[in-house]
Amino acid sequence: MTHADNGGKPREACGVFAVFAPDKPVAHLTYLGIYALQHRGQESAGIAASDGEHLTVVKDMGLVSNVFDDRTLVALDGDLAIGHTRYSTTGSSMWKNSQPVFRDVGHTQFALAHNGNLVNTAELARDAGVLPGAMSSDTDAMAEWISRAIGEHGSDPEGALPAALSEVLPRFDGAFSLVVMDRSRIIGVRDPHGFRPLCLGRLDGGWVLASETPALDTVGAHFVREIEPGEMVVIDGAGVRSSRPFADDRVDPRLCLFEFVYFARPDSELYGRNVHQARVRMGEHLAHQAPVEADLVMGVPESGIPAAEGYARTSGTPFGHGLVKNRYIGRTFIAPSQEMRSLGVRMKLNPLKENIAGRRLVVVDDSIVRGTTTRKMVEMLRESGAAEIHMRISSPPYRWPCFYGMDTGSRSELLAADMEISEIRDYLGVDTLSYLPLDALVEAVGAPGAGFCTACLTGEYPVPIPPEAGKGVLEGGRTSAPEPQSLFQGAMFDSTAGVMPSEEAARDSR
Ligand code: SF4
Questions:
Q1: Given a cut of 80, is residue 271 above it in pLDDT?
Q2: Which one has a higher pLDDT value, 380 or 13?
Q3: Is the model's pLDDT at 267 over the cut of 50?
Q4: CA-to-CA separations, 502 to 11, 39, 302, 319, 497, in angstroms, rounded
Q5: Spatial separation of the C-alpha atoms in residues 403 and 464, rounded to whole Å
Q6: Which of 106, 248, 309, 424 qualifies as a FRET site for 8, CA 20 to 30 Å off?
Q7: Which phi and psi angles does 345 have, rounded to 5°?
Q8: How far apart are CA 228 and CA 20, in angstroms?
Q9: Is 453 a catalytic residue?
Q10: How far is the CA of 16 from the centre of ligand 1 (A)?
Q11: Ligand 1 midpoint to CA 448 (Å)
Q12: Confidence of residue 485 (pLDDT cuts 50, 70, 90)
């Protein structure tokens, strides 16, 4: 799949969930947990469960609700389970790359689910003596190294998995929030930078690990704490035990700033801050930074709306809706012709002409990555009679590709890679364009002293990108706008909205 598939927005890499709760319907709880994390990945879904004797995995391509039904879930029940929703950032979109991955090594069976992206997969494969191309993903590489270490600790099936993890985790570079299980325990791991979130929750009679806090709410667990960057927790009948497998000097918290801007659910809590409120504050800061005379402030559904509310409140300009999002588009629409591809945007967003005609609009969005869909949306607003269009973006220009678990494409695909703001403005066809500066964005998040990754905005990568990983991706910044006729070429329009009835849960996939 191309990066065009998401209409110019980066995609989440994955959502992970784990539950240890003997006497509870753990498979059903995991189903609910990964359903709440569906926005983090829509390509495949999977659950592994153990009854203490056997570890069983069910996974398939598709959305959580397509992969599982009551029949499959009943067959999976046991005392503990892990689950995963996937969008591929390494490895192709195919069944063999769906997760959890399963390995049977001597007396130990284990399953692993991963959110993030390693940057040293090629080195891991090489050091493991695996032929180039034989390892299909970074998660595969991790499973291979864990299996090897278990082989060395194999005489103790009970302790083999935690011991193997402690030994091999320091080899992994990049972003990894992991949930892992064997027959009798679940384990959570966060890389030393904590790029991707992972939290711990308490359930009556058990424990839960999840990428985001709404998954805890969904299963009736209460939030205990975030797993700390560089921490491993082992959870079994004896409770929760924490350890630090990484060298102290590697631990440097850098949560992905884009979790706040766009990726995380608005009802998530990260660094103790509510994501929705942070987005409203981004809009407030934007109104101070880039005021303009206008008649209406509107957000681009869904993730631009909280910032638009903040902008409107601070500027005193009325807030309203100018675009209606169709929440019931099927998962994937493959446009067969140019004409149909152009119509694809209208399938997802349709202008509310009565609110637009003759008005001076402030249009607020969270980010512009490739810009193709934004340009089409601006065209629609013009056709609907907008008198002026002032674009306001609640994050800085997105100039560098992400290597830590977001699918943003190569540098040559990023609209802002090498273009001036005035050139971007002209390409989009708006009257004015302003971005929120980085310091204002961080202030809006409201977690003083907290560490963030900002690499896609600054080019400063907390974990260096090996030349082999950066080849063809870091090169070739875009120096001119794409040709109009290339818009939507080969695009597949994608929405999760049809299976996410809650507006809060339904993620924008423009
Ligand atoms: S590069 Fe950007 S999207 Fe990727 S982890 Fe860092 S802040 Fe997040």
A1: yes
A2: 380
A3: yes
A4: 20, 12, 12, 22, 9
A5: 10
A6: 309
A7: -65, -40
A8: 20
A9: no
A10: 18
A11: 19
A12: very low
**CA pair distance 312, 294, nearest whole angstrom:** 10
* Mean pLDDT for all residues in the chain: 87
User: All domains of the chain, ordered by start, with CATH?
Assistant: 8-253 (3.60.20.10), 272-499 (3.40.50.2020)
Nearest residue (CA) to ligand 1, atom 4: 402
Whose Cα sits closest to atom 8 in ligand 1?
A: 256
Please name which of 21, 67, 20 lies closest in space to residue 41, comparing C-alpha atoms: 67
* Rounded (5°) CA angle 506-509-510: 130
38 lines ligand 1 (CB under 6 A): no
**For residue 320, what are the CA distances in angstroms to 222, 276, 295, 364, 474?**
35, 18, 10, 11, 39
195 lines ligand 1 (CB under 6 A): yes
Q: Exposed (0-12), middle (13-18) or buried (19+): which is 237, by Cβ within 10 Å? A: exposed
Q: What's the whole-model pTM score?
A: 0.89
CB 506 within 8 A of CB 48: no
- Cβ–Cβ under 8 Å, residues 202 and 224: yes
Q: Which two tokens stand for residue 410?
A: 């190569």
Q: Mutation test of ligand 1: which of 87, 193, 195, 400 has the most ligand atoms closer than 8 Å to its C-beta?
A: 195
Question: Model confidence at 480, in pLDDT bands (50, 70, 90)?
Answer: low
- Flag the least confident range among 103-112, 150-159, 227-236: 150-159
Question: Which tens digit of pLDDT belongs to each residue from 180-195?
Answer: 999 999 999 999 999 9
- Ligand 1 centroid vs 12 CA: distance in angstroms? 10
Average pLDDT over residues 31-57: 94
Mean pLDDT along residues 309-319:
98
Sign of CA dihedral 231, 235, 241, 245: negative
Ligand 1 centroid, distance to 402 Cα (angstroms):
5
Ligand 1 pocket member 402 (CB < 6 A): yes
> CA end-to-end span of the chain, whole Å?
15
The residues, ordered by sequence, that sit 6+ positions from 455 with a Cβ below 8 Å of its Cβ are: 400, 402, 403, 404, 461, 462
110 within ligand 1 shell (Cβ under 6 A): no
What are 57's two structure tokens?
A: 């995995």
Ligand 1: residue of 261, 368, 406, 411 to mutate (most ligand atoms within 8 A of CB) is 406
* Residue count of the chain: 510
Task: Tell me if 19 sits within 8 A of 33, measured CB to CB.
Answer: yes
Written as six digits, the tokens of 260 are: 């706040």
pLDDT tens-digit readout, 424-451: 999 999 999 999 999 999 999 999 999 9
